[in-house]
């Protein structure tokens, strides 16, 4: 609920066709309507839009209002795989130094319950970034 990985410098949140269909259904929109309203084409692929905030560029679904002082995902159950698998992306778990580098900007890394390595491998292998 810090919102750190959903905000900051400009970035991208990739959305697959399946994810697009789920998100569109959530808003009772067609996929074309959802895409036109909430997505854009980034160099990396179809991405969720961002909006300006005092924290930088927020994901269009980052909700800073419902819980004062917290930043929550407004589409949590249907959030894209990129969000679900953070911080176990290949680029982050590649080495102790890449992990330490991500830890500098993510207050959640190395806190909370211990995740079994098998589960980390599944998440790492599910995403390409
Ligand atoms: S979809 Fe949710 S978890 Fe993913 S970046 Fe947006 S607010 Fe964050």
Keywords, separated by commas or semicolons:
alpha+beta; 2 domains; two-stranded antiparallel ribbon; 6 strands; binds iron/sulfur cluster
Please indicate the count of domains: 2
Mean pLDDT: 96
Shape: globular
Percent range for β-strand residues: 15-25%
* Poorly predicted tracts of residues: none
Description:
There is one protein chain. The chain is an alpha+beta fold and 129 residues long. It contains six helices and six strands, in the order H-H-E-E-E-E-E-E-H-H-H-H. The strands form three sheets. Strands 1-2 form a two-stranded antiparallel ribbon. The protein has a two-stranded antiparallel sheet with strand order 3-4. A two-stranded antiparallel sheet has the order 5-6. Helix 1 (17-26) crosses helix 2. Residues 6, 13, 48, 59, 61-62, 73, 75, 79, 83 line the site of iron/sulfur cluster.
Quick description:
The protein is α+β, with helices and mostly antiparallel strands and 129 residues long. The protein has helices spanning 17-26, 31-38, 81-85, 90-93, 96-103, 117-126, and strands spanning 39-42, 45-48, 50-53, 56-59, 62-63, 72-73. The protein has six helices and six strands.
What secondary-structure arrangement, pairings included, does this model have?
Blueprint: H1 17-26, H2 31-38, E1 39-42, E2 45-48, E3 50-53, E4 56-59, E5 62-63, E6 72-73, H3 81-85, H4 90-93, H5 96-103, H6 117-126
Antiparallel strand pairs: 1-2, 3-4, 5-6
Helix pairs in contact: 1-2
This protein binds iron/sulfur cluster.
């Amino acid at each position: 609920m810090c919102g750190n990985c959903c905000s900051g410098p400009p970035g991208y949140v990739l959305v697959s066709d399946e994810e697009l269909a789920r998100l569109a259904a959530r808003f009772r929109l067609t996929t074309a309507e959802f895409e036109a309203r909430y997505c854009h084409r980034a160099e990396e692929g179809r991405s969720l839009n961002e909006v300006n905030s005092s924290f930088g560029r927020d994901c269009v679904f980052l909700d800073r209002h419902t819980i004062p002082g917290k930043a929550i995902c407004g589409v949590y159950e249907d959030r894209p795989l990129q969000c679900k698998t953070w911080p176990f992306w290949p680029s982050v778990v590649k080495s102790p130094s890449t992990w330490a580098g991500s830890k500098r900007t993510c207050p959640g890394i190395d806190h909370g319950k211990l995740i079994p390595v098998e589960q980390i491998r599944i998440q790492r292998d599910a995403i390409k970034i």
